[in-house]
Design goal:
Two copies of one chain form a homodimer.
Chain A: E1 26-27, H1 30-36, E2 46-49, E3 53-59, E4 67-69, E5 72-76, H2 96-107, E6 111-116, E7 129-144, E8 150-158, H3 168-172, E9 188-190, H4 195-203, E10 215-217, E11 220-222, E12 224-227, E13 244-247, H5 249-256, E14 261-262, E15 268-269, H6 285-294
Parallel strand pairs in A: 3-6
Antiparallel strand pairs in A: 1-7, 2-3, 4-5, 5-8, 6-7, 7-8, 10-11, 12-13, 14-15
């Protein structure tokens, strides 16, 4: 199995590699592919669960509704097909692999993509199964497939170092030619939570630490990880659990604006009550103080 | 005044041009700059208001706290300086130009940036005032300036066609070398509402059409424009008022997930009550039907 160290120089538009696998590696068949660990099921096109999201998918041309434009894939969910004819005979439902891919949209964790030689696409390998790197599920929806039955469709975009541009601007085909006021785009919410962010969200079962709100989506609960001392320059906060809160999008906007701040006793300015803190979650008082200072609130010792 | 048609071929990493002005155009002095319309005040560094946001700024080295790294600028707000000595003698406050720039962060509308020859920066022109294109205010905060007094600081990033990458990944300097699970980034919320989106939000005074919530930030009210039929491929919804709703971030996440859908009689599935609709806002029933179909809800005529 081809392996390679992921440490290397950074170039723009370089596909993001997963931990151990080389993009472009070809495996003779599904058994070899499974042995590599890239995609372990021998038959199913989607590996993963509704709880954790999808780990990997294989594009093998089984569904007539798949679309492949290299960097962007529209992948059809599983189920509803007659085993003998391979034809769609009933509606697909949001369970198993379909739910797993939906969950990946919610969590923002990338999915490994493999293309098989049987795929009807210009980007299919001539033989075997090729690992093509990490893609992010950016949207999913139901539609009437060519068969007339309901199928789930997932839009995936390839991940590049420096961040893929998941922008509607790109897709409208008019970027750069339209003055900003006419640009066809709106708020972009790109979920890319860190492993630590996911741990904190799990600890609170996605309930907002400010207001207690739980957002329920079709594939499960949704919350966001907010960094207290911001990550980017010039703040350079750490991605550590003592610097992360579990919040709903509304409170996230206000916390990042510093129109909600947390006092030393965990009471709130700009919101009711106190910050809800799990007994095992140690939040850094230094980072909360830094956050207050960004709002112009200076502590007097 | 140099002018040029904005229609042209699209390249990646091409700076976004404003309607009429050529990036790189140099003006001999502030009077010439004002005449061009790029930045009309003759003295003030910030043009704009708290209601509309900032239209333009001039970097001229007046504030010792400014930082200039070409694509990224940290700009210091106005006020608190002694007129004779030019030294910071009191705290800055979030009013006038400072409030305008804060508002630009909330609205996401880009700001024209001009660099003057007096700026202490490698990117300053050797003479006159140079128009350097559009930048977006991505963050602002208060800090103790070098003087010891509170100053407001604004982080601006240059806009490129195809969308600037306002990613913490870029800023951490480790993108591509770190497996995705370790990546230092979180939910990115990039506000880029269209002019029509802003009109709809104004109509509802930023109250969510689903739940009535109004989010109040330090520089004003905040809401998001949600497109009913999504803009991007493969949905190709229009950026038109009959396809836009004014929503809070929480309902936006759920509406884009289609866990809130609107029935034909404007009652809601997944949320209480009815969609609040202003008498002058005609929402397309076709687009609402399309949105329902994405959730797998098929209307039977």
């Amino acid at each position: 199995m081809p392996k390679k160290d992921v440490r290397g120089c950074v170039m723009s538009r370089k596909p993001i590699r997963d931990r151990e696998w080389v993009i472009g590696a070809i495996f003779a068949n599904r058994a070899e592919l499974a042995k590599s660990g890239i995609h372990t099921p021998l038959q199913a096109g989607i590996s993963g669960s509704g709880a954790t999201g999808a780990a990997s998918i294989v594009l093998s041309g089984g569904y007539e509704d798949d679309e492949d434009a290299d960097d962007t894939i529209v992948y059809t969910g599983q189920g509803g097909r007659d085993q003998n004819s391979g034809r769609q005979t009933t509606d697909q439902v949001l369970i198993r692999g379909n739910l797993a891919l939906a969950r990946s949209r919610d969590t923002g964790v990338p999915v490994r993509v493999v293309r098989g030689h049987t795929l009807h696409s210009d980007y299919a390998p001539t033989e075997g199964y090729r690992y093509d790197g990490l893609y992010r599920v950016v949207d999913y929806w139901a539609e009437q497939g060519k068969s007339g039955f309901l199928v789930y469709r997932y839009r995936l975009r390839k991940c590049y170092s420096g961040g893929e541009v998941e922008s509607d601007e790109n897709e409208s085909g008019t970027a750069g030619t339209t003055p900003p006021e006419r640009r066809q785009s709106t708020v972009q919410r790109i979920v890319r939570d860190t492993a630590l962010g996911r741990e904190i969200k799990k600890l609170y079962r996605d309930a907002c630490q400010f207001c207690g709100t739980v957002i329920t989506l079709r594939a499960g609960r949704y919350s966001e990880a907010a960094h207290v001392r911001p990550l980017g320059r010039p703040h350079n906060g750490p991605d550590s659990k003592d610097n992360i809160l579990c919040v709903c999008p509304n409170c996230h906007v206000r916390f990042d604006d510093r129109s909600i701040v947390v006092r030393e006793d965990m009471s709130l300015i700009g919101s009711k009550g106190k910050l809800r803190v799990h007994h095992s979650h140690k939040i850094s008082r230094k980072h909360l103080e830094y956050h207050r200072s960004l709002a112009g609130i200076v502590d007097h010792d």
